[in-house]
Amino acid sequence: MTQEAHVTQGPLTTEAGAPVADNQNSETAGLGGPVLVQDQLLLEKLAHFNRERIPERVVHARGAGAYGTFTVTRDVTQWTRAKFLSEVGKQTETFLRFSTVAGNLGAADAVRDPRGWALKFYTEEGNYDLVGNNTPVFFIKDAIKFPDFIHTQKRDPYTGSTEADNVWDFWSLSPESTHQVTWLFGDRGIPASYRHMNGYGSHTYQWNNEAGEVFWVKYHFKTDQGIRNLTQAEADRLAGEDPDSHQRDLRQAIERGDFPTWTVQVQIMPAADAAAYRFNPFDLTKVWPHEDYPPIEIGRLELNRNPENIFAEVEQAIFSPAHFVPGIGPSPDKMLQGRLFAYGDAHRYRVGINADHLPVNRPHATVARTNSRDGLLYDGRHGGAKNYEPNSFGGPHQTDRPLWQPVPVAGATGNHAAPVHAEDNDFVQAGALYRLMSEDEKARLVENLAGFIAKVSRDDIVERAIGNFRQADGDFGKRLDAAVQALRG
Ligand code: NDP
Ligand code: HEM
């Protein structure tokens, strides 16, 4: 039933559909007497209200989403057999949820934080989710560190506030964060809106073609609206004046037909290059410099339809890096491997075991044929069909063809750090980023970092934090040191 039908047809009813006589006065024993337990409408309304919230996402709680269309603009069949990418001009429906990372559900949009970029392609071979960010790298490179990292971004267990001490203690003791932190405190750390920023798949993924050849890919979504950012002062003001600024901007742009678009590019590395590449190609704290693997334009993404119901379509939307389609798969990136588990687990806790059946989450261009049944809020969609495989009753059967190609491995099991390649260290790309910034941006970067580091209570943490930026670039470290000392007196 559409929203309109709910609003316009017939009398107000209870959840069971019985007409409601009085929605203003609860039922009492006589005039001015106590309320009766037989007033089922009152009890039903209060009980339902108490259960209106589901757990918010443990990260990326605050967000906004929109439907759209992905169009292929270049033949990529030499690299992947994914059907939705099989022909120039082919279009696929999408749903994109943008978010901030650290804030709770009601937090302001205009804050310094990475922005989530969770993109669902409703393909004819199943839903493909690309769960990325607006930055090409990340703070850490092993999933085992993620809960500790996020604890430092959230509220301290004793003070109940976010604490500069915790943030800088962790970052300074995790020097691999230096690249992402440099990016975050630069101009792109506070986008002016969701429309004015790029999206990145961030991780390296596998593409494989009909012949079974393997390629490693990185995705880039370049905003056609142009990059626009807010200064710290502009953001501080906007966060107070209009906490929903990014969400409102996206909805209103789509309402007026000003559909935001992104040019989609990939960097492609033949599998044979990976072992000898100068950087570990599966290290999430590193980019592949464009001069090594030039971005190739392959498509266009347009957002053109707002969700009708935020709770149903945005709050209950689920995205998983483990949702692949034939021709696309994971890389051995240790962060990605952890994420392959984390999201499905979060969905089962947050939305429930049948979350995939909701309209925003289920496949739109094919149907899911599984033998999973029942569970909370199961809608009986499978009718009387057999629920096991193999069976002799025409049930669905396996294809014998894996979605992705096997990856060779060597050596013994162990708690190994990711392999270090010829030019890898935690600072080289942070330095390159600093040096590509304009003089004005460098000054803002130093000011933004210094303002935050100066809040740290312990000298050893301050010194260690500045030391990491000094290793990235001598000038960067010198200027930051001077700015922090000036603030700390
Ligand atoms: P590249 O040409 O490979 O990368 C330069 C890219 O940096 C640009 O294309 C742009 O990415 C991005 N960029 C430009 N200005 C800024 C800024 N102020 N803040 C953040 N990103 C910016 O050059 P290098 O190999 O020398 O890389 C230098 C640094 O560029 C890297 O260390 C990395 O931090 C950053 N970078 C690299 C990307 C890559 O894929 N190689 C992607 C994004 C950032 P875009 O075109 O995506 O807008
Ligand atoms: C959301 C875990 C790293 C992007 C989430 C959620 C969890 C999670 C549990 C909430 C999911 C939900 O409730 O639906 C992790 C873990 C990580 C990690 C364990 C590291 C190992 C990353 C990285 C990126 C990323 C590196 C981007 C490159 C996102 C996005 C969302 C999200 C965009 C929001 C999805 C949505 O809109 O529903 N993450 N995350 N995460 N994460 Fe991660």
From TrEMBL:
Biased composition (Polar residues): 1-12
InterPro entries cross-referenced by the UniProt entry: Catalase, Catalase_3, Catalase_AS, Catalase_clade1/3, Catalase_core, Catalase_haem_BS, Catalase_immune_responsive, Catalase_sf
Necessary cofactors: heme
GO cellular component, one term: cytoplasm
EC annotation from Swiss-Prot or TrEMBL: 1.11.1.6
Record's keyword annotation contains Iron-sulfur: no
One GO MF term attached to the UniProt entry: metal ion binding
Ligand binding (heme): 343
Record flagged with keyword Oxidoreductase: yes
Origin superkingdom: Bacteria
Record region (Disordered): 1-29
Leader peptide range in chain numbering: none
Annotated family: Belongs to the catalase family.
Protein name according to UniProt: Catalase
Organism: Streptomyces globosus
